[in-house]
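Title: [Solved] MFS transporter 3D structure

Original question kept below for reference.
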Amino acid sequence: MTGVDEPVATAQPAGSESTGAVSAGLEPTAAESTGTGGLGGRYWRLWSASAVSNLADGIVKIALPLAAVGYTTSPVLVAGVAAAFSLPWLLFALPAGALVDRLDRRRVMLVANSLRAALLGALALAVALDAGSIWLLYVVAFGAGTAETLYDTSAQSILPQLVPRAMLPRANGRLYAVELAANQFVGPPLAGFLVAGGVAYAMLGPAGLWAAAVVALLLVGGRFRVARQGTSTLRADIAEGVRFLWRHRLLRTLALMVGVSNLTTTATFAVLVLYAVGPNSAIGLSEPGYGLLLTALAAGIVLGSLVAARIERLLGRARALGVAMIAIAVVVGAPAVSTNPFVLGGIFFVGGILLTSWSVITVSLRQQITPDRLLGRVNSGYRLLAWGSMPLGALVGGGLAEVFGLQAVFVIMGVLALILLVGMFWVTDAAIDAAERAAA
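Solution (posted by the thread starter after getting help):
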């Protein structure tokens, strides 16, 4: 939710692996489908599917931990729900990247959303029948997280097969805007209101949204399987991408930094619900109030996506990345020094603006210095570190809270995020320029 990995819609540029020819049977070509130069009806149906699917994501990621508080007050068990949701990124990120390059991407998205709708629908029924439990939440979180790895990886790759390359910046921008707004701006407060009305409603809502996304994807039409030259094993495909990422010092450093920074944010937000929600909590918010607090961060991220280029021009790439890392440290450490929700909301908002520049700069850089034929697999390897660290962060946050208390989590994670500034010795403007020259 608060990590600094790339937005789904902007991870695949024109010319990446996913821009290869689709298999025979794709109905109109990208150029034909856009008619007079617009983005085309198929694009807008994909846009609609992405909007409702990301709204469901935003609700679930907040609703599941809030629902867990109704079954247990243990920080470890509550944090374990977030760990179960993000654990599939650690287990399945690399295979998902390789599979999506072999299968029809739209069909993968259809199956993934159908599975998520079924899981949340079943959970809503169980809660309504008073058969819910913390362990059932774990099962549903893990299943939904597994489907997310396939859906998000497919969503990164399908867009260049829908619109001409010249229109990708415009198409990506509009898709990213709705994903961000739905997932991080609308979803969190809506989750708080739904949970306040009843956990069953909070689970039924995302199920219905994912079902609606399935309908929209069915209307996209066409086949989206990339033609492959030669044969190779899944293991060989994965290994080639991992080798390139690990041997490239700049990419390796950035990947490790984002992995640890996401560990700190996940550890913080996995237990923040216990620190913030309820009359006996330190902050004393209601469920809707908690959703609004997180919306302040999301609003900053949305605004940051609009001004990131200006921040980069003003500070330069390396300095902007350093400022973004400081912003992460301030965001995760702020609850340790203030329990005023208005102060925290202001810090979250400004921090969201600054940390967005990390994603914008590093995604563009990775696209420029990674060979096109490896970009999909390098992206999945990068996401393994970026998202795979999240379940560990959730468990670390819960464990630290159990032993030292909730406030200690925020202090420790803030200090750890500041230590990551050591990586900026290798992430310099000179190193970035040299990597771009070598790629060219």
